[in-house]
Design a protein that fits this description.
The complex is a heterotrimer of chains A (about 80), B (about 700) and C (about 45).
Chain A (H helix, E strand, L loop, with lengths): L10 E6 L7 H5 L7 E7 L6 E5 L2 E5 L1 H4 L3 E5 L2
Antiparallel strand pairs in A: 1-2, 1-5, 2-3, 3-4
Chain B lengths: L3 E8 L5 H9 L3 E5 L6 E8 L5 E6 L11 H11 L9 E7 L3 H13 L4 E6 L4 H4 L1 E3 L1 H8 L2 E4 L8 H9 L17 H10 L5 H14 L17 H26 E3 L7 H9 L4 H42 L4 H18 L2 H17 L1 H15 L7 H6 L4 H6 L7 H10 L8 H12 L4 E2 L2 E2 H27 L9 E3 L8 H35 L3 H5 L1 H8 L7 H14 L2 H13 L6 H9 L6 H9 L7 H10 L12 H13 L4 H11 L3 H25 L1
Parallel strand pairs in B: 1-4, 1-5, 5-6, 6-8
Antiparallel strand pairs in B: 2-3, 3-4, 7-9, 10-11
Helix pairs in contact in B: 3-9, 5-9, 11-12, 11-13, 12-20, 13-20, 17-19, 18-19, 18-28, 19-28, 20-29, 22-23, 24-25, 25-26, 28-30, 29-30
Chain C lengths: L1 H24 L20
Classes of the chains: A mainly beta (about 80), B alpha/beta (about 700), C mainly alpha (about 45).
Chain lengths: ~80, ~700, ~45
């Protein structure tokens, strides 16, 4: 499952963020395996996605989100 | 002679770095450019205790030493080059108390460069609200640094900071991370090849080198050591990032406690409304309308004042200085030229005031979030919103604002289409033509004239969006999605920051456009004041003979002479020369002259017409009534009729006439290809549209 | 005399203006481009 599959309010734990197409900047902002990611808001067409990654509040495009593998956690 | 300490101010965006800079330097700051590139260089002087001065360089905000834009590259360049005169004696890292974990990544990297580093934790006033407690002693020990806890909002901690800067020599330069743990074998080889160099520094140079292609590095000859591929290096960088976060997490576990039960969260409450699928857009739209209405209303007062002031100045100069050509140049060329620049300052300043408030408050990021998907369909980015809106004041600072668009293609397209938005300079032209040719009457309570103006604004935006779409399809530039935008906490904008931003942006307009407009005004004055042959030089005699039989007072006669001279000046001849080209658009050579003069600044159109129709002063009513009486010699109907008026409006909407904008485009894209393309394509488009409009409507 | 000064002044103004515009638009590359750094020419990053 990837970040792109998250529904609003859902949380997940990142399992893999090693794809070459994920900008290093995103990793540096906390998108690393073991960190939590929560979907806060969605723009129309689910793009971009406003996420809380490891405490950092940021928005990324769906295409990038689809590269981040996660495991869904149930609150 | 007091010693000067070089301080580099570094930090993530949205940490209040600018506020700290302002608090330290006050008004002793200046903004320039780094040589050769279009990145802003911001520096200032701070007075420390005991007569010591600190030279503070406010570096562009960055998340890490891994640069992904030109801005961030500047940071690395400086920190790796000990010979640079701005190389810091001490680095000041600004972090914000709510994002400490992420902010510390950059801190550990800078520390590893073995530069004395001070940690400033800003926004301390929010700690209670968020339930955050920090043990500074532990943090100082584990991070091997000195910490200043400050709040620029409440003005606390600045003095502590100044003391720390003063005593920078006592700060340890122990690194946080042992670089070789990233990949022991690789780094051992590196150490053998370059025994005298610092490992981490080498690492930064290698990774940045590969990311950017060929860069001259005067310190090291890295060429022979590219033993890893780009993707392998990236994987090592990921490892480095993971290791750093492990270190940071350890430190924060000891030194920071967060009690989420106590935390209050304004951000999510506001986000729920402001990024709402329907209300979000509605609210944004309303805000936009309010801004435009306010600017319109507020700016007119100072604008009228400036108009009058410059006219009086011109008049006064003519009276006070000895008569002669230079006085004429001053009063008729230079002063009006300057006036044409100054008169737009109110509008531009107000627009940037609003934009600065929206950005400082954090709302702008939400706008980018809402608009990104829509913008992308047209080859733009969500971050193109600010330049496009700014373009309604002036394209010059708008184009400069595209610097934060990471994707080159999106940035280029934004730069190319922004001039289509209706800038302030087009308004005087629009207003007078609309007043002349649009009939009275109302439609749903709004006058036709007001509706026409709104329509022109929409046409401007429409043209921008559509040409962006076309450019997106036709330009063959690789386009990688690389969009990351931080959604900062909402906060009340700090007045000081807003004011400084407005001053900076307005200055860029005045200086950027001002010099060019002035130079062109002088040249145009020349072309209008001199002409070849008898027709020009004997104008006095010719006109007097022509009107010998008529009763005319002195001023009227002088105006007739002036008009005759203009007709036979170099510019007049140019107007006549292009007349055949513009005739199908419904214009005559007089309008031709005015269009040519618009290349200095679009609004010059009105003033030029005033001169041509020998109207003594720039009284709008007089110009208007004079223009309405003008007859098209070929057709025998009023020159400014509905057809030619619409044609003129559309021409000004689409033509690229602003030389200042072309200069900025050239600077920001670093080539002549793009501004020339803009000039040719936009002008051709404007011509064709105006042509069709006139032929259809006449 | 006044006329002479005025003429000198206006022609100086003209030359300065033209010179300024030439330098701005027909920029003689006195300094080689410092960096071919990322963010400008579509290096695809």
């Amino acid at each position: 499952m990837t970040v792109a599959d998250l529904k609003k309010g859902e949380t997940g734990i990142i399992t893999d963020s090693s794809s070459g197409d994920i900008p290093l900047k995103l990793l540096e902002m906390g998108c690393l395996p073991g960190n939590t990611v929560q979907l806060l808001q969605l723009a129309p067409f689910s793009d971009p996605m406003y996420l809380n990654i490891n405490g950092s509040h940021l928005a990324i495009r769906k295409k990038t989100a689809a590269l981040i593998l996660i495991k869904l956690t149930h609150e | 002679m007091s010693k000067q300490i070089n301080v580099a101010l570094i930090g993530n965006p949205n940490t209040g770095k600018t506020s700290v800079f302002n608090a330290l330097t006050g008004l002793n700051q200046k903004v320039g450019n780094y040589p050769g590139i279009t990145v802003e260089k911001k520096e200032g002087i701070c007075k420390l205790p005991r007569g010591v001065k600190a030279h503070i360089l406010d570096l562009p905000g960055t998340y890490s030493l891994n640069a992904s834009s030109l801005d961030e590259n500047v940071v690395i360049e400086l920190l790796l080059n000990k010979n640079d005169k701005d190389f810091p004696d001490v680095a000041l890292i600004i972090t914000d108390v709510e994002n400490l974990k992420r902010n510390l990544l950059l801190f550990t990297q800078i520390k590893d460069l073995k530069i004395p580093t001070i940690l400033a934790i800003n926004m301390a006033d929010r700690m209670n609200r968020k339930g955050i407690k920090l043990d500074l002693e532990i943090l100082e020990r584990r991070l091997n640094t000195k910490i200043a806890l400050l709040s620029t909002r409440k003005n606390t901690g600045i003095d502590t900071l100044k003391d720390l800067i003063n005593n920078y020599k006592t700060i340890s330069t122990e690194p946080c991370l042992d670089t070789s743990t990233i990949d022991t074998e690789y780094f051992q080889n590196l150490k053998k090849a370059f025994p005298n160099q610092d490992l981490y520094k080498l690492w930064v140079v290698i990774t940045q080198d590969v990311n950017f292609g060929k860069i001259d590095r005067n310190e090291l000859a890295i060429e022979k050591f590219k033993t890893k591929s780009k993707s392998e290096l990236k994987r090592l960088q990921q490892k480095e990032t993971i290791k750093r976060y492990q270190f940071i997490n350890d430190v924060l576990k000891e030194g920071q406690t967060i009690d989420t039960a106590n935390a209050r969260d304004l951000r999510s409450k506001l986000d729920r409304i402001l990024t709402h699928k329907v209300f979000g857009y509605l609210i944004f739209f309303i805000i936009l309308l309010t801004i435009f209405q306010a600017i319109y209303d507020w700016a007119s007062v100072p604008m009228d004042f400036i108009d009058g002031a410059f006219a009086s100045l011109s008049h006064w100069l003519k009276g006070v200085l000895p008569s002669g050509v230079f006085t004429d140049l001053l009063a008729e060329g230079i002063i009006p030229g300057l006036g044409g620049i100054v008169i737009f300052i109110p509008q531009i300043a107000f627009l940037f005031l609003f934009i600065a408030v929206l950005e400082e408050s954090g709302y702008m990021s939400r706008v980018v979030f809402l608009m990104d998907r829509v913008m992308r369909r047209f080859g733009l980015s969500g971050k193109s919103v600010v330049p496009l809106i700014s373009g309604t004041a002036c394209a010059i600072p708008a184009i400069m604002a595209t610097r934060n668009i990471e994707n080159w293609k999106e940035r280029l397209i934004t730069i190319l289409v922004t001039p289509f938005t209706t800038c302030s300079a087009r308004l005087p032209v629009y207003l007078i033509i609309i007043a002349l040719v649009i009939p009275e009457g109302r439609f749903i309570g709004l006058s036709y004239q007001a509706l026409s103006l709104m329509l022109l604004y929409l046409i401007g935006f429409g043209a921008a969006i559509i040409s962006a779409y076309i450019l997106d399809r036709t330009l063959k530039i690789r386009r990688k999605t690389f969009f990351v935008i931080e959604m900062p906490n909402y906060k009340l904008p700090l007045l000081k920051n807003v004011v400084f931003t407005v001053i900076e942006k307005t200055k860029s307009f005045v200086l950027g456009a001002g010099k060019i407009i002035l130079a062109i005004s002088i040249i145009l004055w020349f072309l209008a004041s001199f002409g070849p042959g008898d027709q020009f030089n004997e104008a006095d005699r010719i006109v007097k003979t022509e009107f010998a039989n008529q009763q005319m007072d002195e001023s009227e006669l002088q105006q007739k002479i002036a008009a005759h001279k203009l007709e036979h000046s170099y510019i007049g001849l140019t107007g006549r020369a292009i007349e055949p080209i513009i005739e199908p658009l419904g214009y005559d050579w007089k309008i031709g002259i005015a269009i040519v003069c618009s290349f200095a600044a679009r609004e010059v159109f009105v003033g030029t017409l005033a001169t041509i129709y020998s109207v003594g002063n720039d009284d709008e009513e007089t110009i208007k009534s004079r223009m309405s009486k003008e007859i098209n010699p070929v057709l025998g109907v009023p020159l400014f009729n509905f057809a030619s008026g619409i044609s003129l409006l559309l021409f000004y909407a689409f033509a690229m006439q602003c030389m200042s904008t072309l200069a900025i485009v050239k600077r920001e894209t670093n080539s002549w290809k793009w501004p020339i393309l803009q000039l040719v394509l936009m002008s051709a488009f404007a011509y064709v549209v105006a042509l069709i409009a006139y032929q259809l409507l006449k | 005399m006044n006329s002479l000064i005025q003429n000198i002044l206006i022609f100086s103004a003209l030359i300065l203006s033209i010179g300024f515009l030439v330098r701005k638009y027909i920029w003689i590359p006195k300094k080689k481009k410092a960096n071919k750094a990322c963010g400008q020419d579509g290096c695809g990053c």
